[in-house]
Predict the structure of Peptidylprolyl isomerase.
Amino acid sequence: MAEARMTNQQHLAAAQALKEEGNELLQRGDYEEAFSKYEEGLRHVESELLYQMAPEEQVELLRLRTPLLLNSVLCDLRMNPEDQTRRLALSESRVKSVLKLQPKNVKALFRMAQLHGRAGEFREARELLEKLCQQEPDERAFRAELASLKKRERAAELETAAFWGGALRKGLAEPRLERLEGGQANDAHDQDQESDGSFNRRAVTMGLARLYVMLERVFASLLLLWRSLVQKWGAGRRHDRDHSSPHVL
């Protein structure tokens, strides 16, 4: 006997029940199970079995679909540590689908900012979070996320500086090692000039150390200058955009 097809109301009721189950699991920190419930709920509200709907059913569908999508994104974020930079493509597509219908949905904008930050797109994330903080100055979650983002952005900059500093040290160490090895070979053949050779090696080492410190400071200054220019450029873009489209969040 063929299974009876669910009505629109049955699909909506099932989605509502699954959303509530997912919310309880989310509150308990069981993100994988909560994600599974939201996924199952989405299959009901996005099912091909949903035929022509009455206007009130369409409103109910949208009311259920949005939290199912955004809560599934929250689970995805919680299941992927923020210190591991990666792009969560499925979650991004889900947030975009919400913003397509509700471009001013604050929770969707917040999730998009979090996804930008998770992908290492710090400037985009910071711009969104700063706007949200201006729009909702009493929302602690927005301020906390912005503070966390700035901390991670600074850590990424320091990591980049350390990488290039390490490369610079390696480049300076190799010729120094060659000079020291050459000095040792000369000492083996010329014991009478041992003291002069030691002095020369110390002088070379000190000179290279001073050069490294100087270059490291120059690199750090250039990095700070680059960051300042990027921020000014971003501020200019925001200023132009705010004046041309005052209603864009």
In short: The mean pLDDT is 78. The radius of gyration is 29 Å.
